[in-house]
Amino acid sequence: MNAALRTRESDGLFHRIGAFLAEHRLSPEPANYAFAYSVLIAPNGPLAIQVARLTDGGCRLTQEDLARLSGVPIAAAGTPAAQPDRRQPQLDQAERLVAETQAQVDGFAAIVRTMRRETNGFGRDLAQSAAAINEATPVAVADLSRITGVMIARAKDSETKLALATDETERLRTKLAEACETARRDPLTGLANRLAFAEAYATRNLDEGPYCLALCDIDHFKRVNDVHGHGVGDRVLKMIGHALVENCNGQLVTRHGGEEFAVLIKGMKLTDATKLIDRARKTIANRRLRNRDTDAPIGAVTFSAGIVAVGTQESAEEATDRADKLLYNAKSLGRDRVCAG
Asked: In DSSP terms, which residues pair with 297 in a beta bridge?
């Protein structure tokens, strides 16, 4: 296999890794790169099979899934037959940033390799220079001058490459920070996304508790899209998200998916957290919206919510499932209400 072919295959694998991370909203961290590589390099291996089962039906992996799968054996490369591609629409911007960051990493590594190769003979040349000084013959002086000139040129060249590598490192840091932020941000509303919620939940400081979790779902949102179009629907999503932020006093408001928002509330008991969400619900319900393109009235847009107190040892999935059941109760009771439990 020639170098060009190996490069093309490597690039293809890298782009698949970037797509995998973007698909599952996973941050571009070394551990996640390694996980994606292990899945994609052996698509019929035990790890890939477990991932396919977990993501069947369009589900995405969470950081907790990765932690649980860390003990699954990784098969060697070369196993045939990939699993069916079940990818959802990806965060194109995040994928692009990850790709650019990886390109910067590759460029930095190439610079360092070149510097090591070109400075590899410094010790030998110094030894030759010392020997030439000891001999102190005209030929030795000429050789010493030549060797010294070569070493000075190498040193200057290495200084230039080192400066370039330093600049690349700073750009890499900026790109990584940008990619990490984008991977945790919903592109439509600008709110934190499901990945950011999962990380905030997993790393919450129990000393700042108690914690509550609210799931808020816009009522009859499909009707808004059907009657007024998806552009208006997008604006309604942004309005609801920003109104929740304004009314939730610094609590973490995230777009959980579709027309659903999750609010992780810290430092409040269930009773107070329920009042907080209900005040936000009333504020939003009292607004009367109009289609700014046609001036047609949209009317009131409401949401229903389920809210639970989070146990100190409770996983995000368990708390979300309980809140989701209460959200369903709120819908079945007529919508535009908050059910707590």
From this structure: 290
pLDDT in tens, 23-51: 887 776 777 777 888 888 888 888 888 88
Asked whether residue 247 falls in the same domain as residue 336, the answer is yes
Catalytic residues: 259
First to last CA, the chain: 62
> 199 and 322 share a domain?
yes
Please state the pTM of the whole predicted model.
Answer: 0.55
Residue 87 maps to a domain: no
Domain containing 44 equals: 3-69
* Count of the separate structural domains present in the chain: 3
The DSSP string of 74-138 is PPPTT---PPP--PPPP-HHHHHHHHHHHHHHHHHHHHHHHHHHHHTTHHHHHHHHHHHHHH--H
Residues of the chain with pLDDT under 70: 1-14, 28, 57-58, 70-141, 143-145, 147, 151, 169
Closest CA to 180 of 203, 197, 198, 196: 196
Asked if residue 148 and residue 238 are part of one domain, the reply reads no
